[in-house]
Amino acid sequence: MSYYSSKHPGLYLYISLVIISVLSFLFSDMGAAQIGMLTIFWGIFTALRTLTLYEISEHYEAYANNGDVSKNNNSQPSALAYDLMHRMNSSRNMKRGMLALSCLHERTILWFLLALIYTAFQLHTLSSELSKSALMEDMSIFFIIGATFWAGQSYAYSAKISRMLLFMLSTLFLLSLSILKSDFSFDMLYPALSQTAFLDFSNPQIILVILTLYSVAILLFALVQNNKSAGNIILGICLVALLSAFHLILEPSREATALWISGWGMFAIFWVRSYGTREKRYVLYQCE
Amino acid sequence: MRFADPLHSRRGAFLFIALFSCLQITIGFFLINGNGRDSVLSSSSIETAQLIRSEIIQGSSYIADAQTIINHGNKPTINEDTFASLANAIEPASGGEGIENNNEAELENEQNIETKKLIESLSTLSTINYREK
């Protein structure tokens, strides 16, 4: 799974894991053992993806100093062509890697901190009602959703792959919605939106509201900075608003997890594409 | 080539994600092995356990009554009301919901008749013992 031996390291594994997770939660009676199995798969995948990104970050220093190819091979015949080809290829790979590292930006780390606080708050609230095993199952489900969101950001480095991921995740999202349409209950919407609910700090949903507002604020800030990604930003804001509304009106269940996995996976693409960096291409062909 | 945002110094984030992944893998193994399975019984298991418990309690009360009658010859605790409720309880289910096979239904009816005979003989025996005293 080395970054340099594969064109898109782990991408098909990520797609397979998302499809298996969503379909399992939708169509299978998920017990503790099945959730444990999925958690192990996602844990191994996340650890491997972390190693890949770490490899990129370690190679950055050498690459930023123009690498060692030019210095070693300049004396050989056709060194210029070889050097150019090598630099173009490695530049493309390194650019993908650097865009993949956007999933570790400060704004994303803060997003995950808020999500962790929400998870811990909710588990603390439920700890008196649920057993240890049920709490571990809930924690695993939160981890699967978070891993989908984080790894989805790391793969949205090109427009082609982003479109492919969006197509797959939106299909799964619509499939989940069509199956779960009978589980929506609007009775919880009005009490949740009342003024007393927003002032009740013992309610874990307050962290979810903060998380949603933070996401919208970051996307609006990106809209001010970069108008070229306006489409991604507006779609991201609409999606996060839709997901927040679903959190309020959808009864928590195993099937609802499929909706969160596909929905937050889709949001990851819009989130990271809102800050897409654009650099000048001519620097690739500069010679020393 | 210059990159706008060099991220090579974020080793803490890498370490945190790797450790969290390892923690989740451990939790996954715990869930697979069934550790902490204190309230994960399925509803069918709970119903079966409750049914077995009620049957044991009911059976032990009958045995205690029978032993009391045989050993001491006291007045039987199976009075007419108890006998009627017992007879109603062992009546075969009507409506054809539970028994579809005719052979099985006949076999069950035979067993019920035998049980009724047993209870009748038991009550007769206890009445005789009571009169003799």
Topology record:
The complex is a heterodimer of chains A (288) and B (133).
Chain A: H1 11-27, H2 32-64, H3 69-73, H4 79-100, H5 106-126, H6 132-155, H7 159-180, H8 189-193, H9 195-199, H10 205-225, H11 230-249, H12 254-273
Helix pairs in contact in A: 1-2, 1-7, 1-12, 2-4, 2-6, 5-6, 5-10, 6-12, 7-12, 10-11, 11-12
Chain B: H1 11-33, H2 43-72, H3 80-89, H4 102-132
Q: If you had to describe this structure to a student in words, what would you say it looks like?
A:
The complex is a heterodimer of chains A (288) and B (133). By secondary structure, chain A is mostly helical. Chain A has one domain. Chain A is built from twelve helices and no strands. In chain A, helix 1 packs antiparallel against helix 12 and helix 7 (159-180) packs antiparallel against helix 12. Chain A is globular. Chain B has four helices and no strands. The model of chain B is unreliable at 1-6, 38-43 and 93-100 (pLDDT under 50). With 133 residues, chain B is an all-alpha fold. The longest helix of chain B has 31 residues, at 102-132. The chains are: A mainly alpha (288), B mainly alpha (133). Chains A and B meet through helix 2 and helix 6 of A and helix 1 of B.
